[in-house]
Each structure stands twice: as C-alpha cells, then as structure tokens.
Amino acid sequence: MIKKISIHNYKSFHPTTLAAIDFDTGKQATFIYGLNGAGKSAIGEVVHGRSVQDDKFAHCQVETTGTGPFRHLVYNHAFAGRVIGETMQGIFTIGEVDTAKQKDIDEKDAENAALNIDVTMLRGRIEVAQKLVDDEISRGIDDIWKAHGTGKATKLASMLEGYGRNKKGFFNDLRTYEVVQGIKLDTIARLEQRYADVSGTEASKTVSPIDLSGLAEIEEDAIWADPVEVSAASRLAPLIAKLGNGDWVDQGRPYAWDEQCPFCQQRLPHDFEDELAKLLEGGRKLKIDKIAGLVSNYALRLEQLQERMSGVFDDPITKETGLELAWSKLEGQMKASLSLMRTKQAKPSNAIKIAVADHQPMRDALAALKAKVDDFNKRILDRSGERANIRKMFYGVLQADRVEAYAAHDAALAPLEAQLTAVKARNVELEQRIAANTLRLAELRGQQTGVDASVEAINARLQDMGITSFWITRKDGDGHLYCLARPHDVNCSAQSLSEGEKTLISFLYFIELIKGSHEEAGNVEVSKTIVVIDDPISSLSQNYIYDVATIIQHQLIKPLAGLPKVRQVIVLTHNLFFFHELIYQLAGGSLEKAAAKCQLLRVQKNDYSAVVALDPLALMNDYDALWQVLRDARDNKAPVQVVPNTMRCILEQFFTFTAGTADLANALKCLALADHSNKFTPLERYLNRGSHKDGINGPPIDWSQYDIDYYMGKLRALLKAVGHENHYLRKMGEEVPQVSVA
C-alpha cells in the first residue's frame, strides 16, 4: 500500500519544501476532497509518473509498505485521453471458464493470499529480529570502543590514528589481536618506554662489568673469629694474660720511647723493650697485618662499587631490573661488615662474626640489566620493526582488556543471529512458493484469456445505466482492439462522444483494466493493485454520480464474495455531492462512522497546495464548502483572490433560500430602499469586480490592497441587516451570543 507521497516543485506544490501526504495503511479506502485548482490532480499524476519511472517526477517520492511489488493504476484526464481514440486497446481478461482450471486458479490465488499474509508477518518478525541483532551489535561495539578511549589516554595514542569515529572498524580490527594463551604481554608503561626508546636518537648502550668476586672470601675469612693473643715467649706474657689487656699494651707501645714509663713515670727495666718486642712481635704481628690488609681491600672494593654504581641508575632501563634495591641491600651489608672489620682491626684480641653478604640478588639484577641492554640494542637496530612490534603488543593489551566483553557480546549475539537466519530462510521459502504459484497462475490464466469478457462487461454496465445510444465492439480486422458502435454505425468515430460520455466510457474501461491486462500473457494480481481515481464524474450528468460511486464501492472496495479485491483505493474529487455519496455508501449512511471506515483528506491551497485531515461533518454540502473557503481565507489558508466569488455564491444561494430570488443586485437594492442608505453598494462593487463580472475588469487587481477583514465585516453587517447575523457567526465558527430568557 502507499503509505506516503512526497511532492515538491510540481504544479501548485512548493518549489523546494516537500509536502508529505501520509496515508492510513490500516484503511483500504482514502477519499480526498478539494476545490478545482487546489492541486488534487497533481497527486494522481505523481503516482502514475513514479510508477512508469518518468524522470519528470524523479524528485518526488511514493513510499509503499507491505508485500510488493504493486501495480499502480491511475484514472485521470490523461488516462481518458490515452484511451479514447478511434480505437481502444483490448483488455485480456478471463473468458470461457474451464472449471477445473478455474478451481486450480482459485486455490492458487487463495494460497498466495495466505502466503502473502504469512510473508507480511514474517517481514515484521524479520524487522524485530534484525533490530535486536543491530542493537546488540551496537551495544557490543560501544563496549569494545572503551578500549579505544583507554588507548587514547596513553603515550601510544598515535597508534590509534585512522579510526576517527569508526567504531565498527575498531571493533573488527581489535579482535584480530587476540593473544595466544601463555604469551606474556608488556604493561602499557613498559610499552610506552619501549616506544620512547625507539623514537629517540640514542645509540646502543653498554654495561660495564661489576666485579663481586673475592668479597665473600674476605667476609668468610676465619681470622675474624680468631682472638689475636700476645706471644708467650716474653716474660711479660703471664702478667699481660692476667691483666687481659694485650691490645692496650700494643696501643701504648709507640709512647715507650724513653727509659721512663709513659704511664707511671717509673724507670723501665733495662730489657723492657726487648721483652715488649717478644710479646707483640712474631705470629701476632702477622695476624694483625693480615687483618689490616683485608680491611683495606674490603674498603677499597666497597668504594669502587659505590663509584661504579653512582651513575648506573640515571638510565631508566634499570628501573625494572631490581638493581637499585639489590645494590641498596648489598651496600648496607658491606658497610656493616666493614664497620665490624675495623673493630677487629682496632682490637685484634676480640672475636667477631662477619655475615656473608647475599650477592645473588645483585648478580641477578645485573644479569637482568644486561639482558635489557642487549634487548634495547637489538631493538634500536631495527626501529621500524620495533614500532610494529610495539603496536601489535599494544593492541594485544587493549584486546586482552576487552576479551570478556567480546565473549559476552558473542554469547548474546549468536542466538539473535540464529533467530534472524531462521525467519529469513522461512521468508525465502514462502516467497519461492509465491513465485511458483504466480508462474502457474500465469500459465492457467493464459489458457483462459480473451477480450470478449471485457467488451461484454463494459456494455453490460452501459445498459444498466440506461445508455443504449452507443456501445463498444471489436474492431473489424483486429480482434484485439475495441471501437465505438452506434445503432446505425457499427464502426463509428469516438469523436462523436460528448465529454461526459468520454468520461463514462473511459472510466468503465479503467474498471475492467484493473482485473485485466493489455498483454495476452500478462499476469495480473488484483490483490497487489493500487487504484487512484481522479474526478471520475467530471462532465458527467448528476444521474451517473450514484452509478460511479456504486461501481467504486462494489467493484473495488467491497466486491462480492469470491471476487478479488484491490489493495488500496484513493479517490480525489471536487464534487462535494459525489464525495458524500462515497462516504455514505461505505459508512452505511452515517457520516459519524466514516472516519472508522476510511481515511478522509482535503487539499487546500493558499500560496501552495497542502493536504490536511478532513472531518466528514465539516462539509455537509456545497453551501458549507463555500463557507469553508471563507474560513480558510480568514485563516490565511486560501488565497484572497477566491473571496469575492465565494461571497457572491454564498449570497446568491442565501437570498435564493430566504427571499426566493437569485438576483443578488435586486436583493441589495431592496435592502437599500428599506434601509434608506447605500452602505452595501461598496460590497456589491467588490463582489462584481472580484468575480470578474465587469467588462472593465481587464487590468490585474492588486489584491494586497484589499482588507479581507473589512469585507468580512461588510458581509456580517449585510446578514445582520436581514436578521441573520447568527447565521454568519455559526458558519464562520464564531461564538453566537446567548439570548437570556426572562
């Protein structure tokens, strides 16, 4: 069905702004009323132009809904002009009916109708399923896009360039970087450092060797736990041993440089110096010298290590090796050990315990540093390759962060896609069955087609209308063409038809064409036919308005049981009587129920045409329609040019009803005599000139100079003068004053 027609830059429609006409697809019939010149015919012309792909209408749109494609048939003056000539093209319809074939046709038609209903329902399910799939894909893409935001916040953001807002592209690309289980990924911080390394200009790094050998041997030497005692060869040894102060004696020895004791000031024995030498020299002296050598060596090694390590930590590459912590611990241990060693050196007789430093963490850290330096040197040898590796791992890190999001998305999407695939497959299956049935129907109908049925149907309708002065028949020599026939001329010219007769014959021909085709092998699906009828009673006698309305009602909208029914009927007319007759027949004589049975629209024109909804009770007759034009002009919905003629028509009908005279001028003169004034003469002149009654009304009128409200006031005053002001107020939709009852 047609659900929307969009028109612009055609006839009276706006040149740039689309005028959208929305159709209620829940109702088969739409009736559109509008005055002549409002723009009705343009609607049918657009439908026909789009259906035949006329480039003239490429900028307009006709949108349909439901199971198509649809056949659009438009009846208008152009159609009548194409049909009415010396001959009319034959319409191939069902002729002699083969009962068995017809039964098969009916069954295939019924099956296709049911299948089309199922297809329509399936397409609704497909739309729902597709939306669920699309929503989940959109949600999943948005969830994965969070990784893009994470990456943008790092120093590696440049590696995400090229995506812009292409969330779907990022979603698809990122999942290709799924990391194989067991592969260890660098942290973002580490990748940033690697990127900084490869982006710089630094040459290869070197690691000077750091020697830790021999330190353990010094720390483990047994001398630290060995008390260094004085020699027993001296006669002073027992006394020193008794006093236990050999270290003190050794420390005071440099002060004994004279024969007098430096402590007690007594004269020393003559052999004291020799005995003292015996006491402190020999094995003790060797041990003390060893201790001094070990302390000196250990202190030197510590100083060398401190000097070597002082610049190592300036390089960021050491930060992840643990070297700083390992050195801090080792340095602390060595300082403590050196302090104890110096205590031993000061008091050799004391036994001390030196803790052996744990050198392994330092060695491990140095090995890690060397590995990193080697890795760095290797990487900067191929900077472009390193950047590629960083990018790959960077995307791997982002993908790892979203791996659960991918899993959740896949789990949610799989059943939705399975459901969508299933309903699509079912839809394809049904459409294939419809196609097979359609092909079979074409074959069956091809065996039963002929042009006689259409000729007989058209002539039967002419007779039903009481028309016997002409009919149609096959043209001599060509059984596929029709021509006009009269009682005494079986092959007369169609030009002998009046305009009303041409309208009638072309309309009946159109009705037959709905269920037939110009092609003998043509396959017609009436249920997929959309019919647009534009003013089918133009130039017709009022006698035939009932007939035309009845044909539309019983052939197109509500055909007899078993007959095919068109998908949609759109009727446009300027004739209010015909418009009402269509509504009455469809709604069972009740205008109040019309809105539930059909869609009612109205074409109105001010500067440009527009289509609006219509209340069926708003236009009761042609007289009411005239008042509607005045209301539209007052509300700037109709051009001011229509006001004079409309007022004239209203007043002529009014005075005909109330005074029994159709002569407006005489009615106004009588009113002037009764009122003893000429105050309504300006109104008469306005109506005369505005409706082009005067012979001098040749030059164009500048309508912008006329105050419509002023003349509306004149009209109200006129009706007030004859005692019918309330009639004006009711017709213009204005409030009628209440009369109080005493």
Overview of the structural elements:
This protein is of the alpha/beta class. About 50% of the residues lie in helices and about 10% in strands. It has 25 helices and 15 strands. The strands form 4 sheets. Strands 5-12-13-3-14-15 form a 6-stranded mixed beta sheet, with helices on both faces. Strand 10 (about 480-485) and strand 11 (about 490) form a beta hairpin. The chain is elongated. This is AAA family ATPase. It comes from Rhodanobacter ginsengisoli. InterPro entries: CR006_AAA, P-loop_NTPase.
Q: From the structure provided, what is the oligomeric state, counting identical versus distinct chains?
A: single chain
Residue ranges: pLDDT <50 for 5 or more in a row? 92-98, 693-700
Report the β-strand fraction as a percent range: 5-15%
Class by helix and strand content?
A: alpha/beta
Enumerate how many helices there are, as a single number.
Answer: 25
- Our Rg estimate from Cα atoms comes to 56 Å
Mean pLDDT: 80
Helix content: 40-55%
How far apart the termini lie comes to 61 Å
Largest sheet: 6 strands, mixed
Shape: elongated
- Number of E-type strands: 15
If strands are numbered along the chain, what order do they take across the biggest sheet? 5-12-13-3-14-15
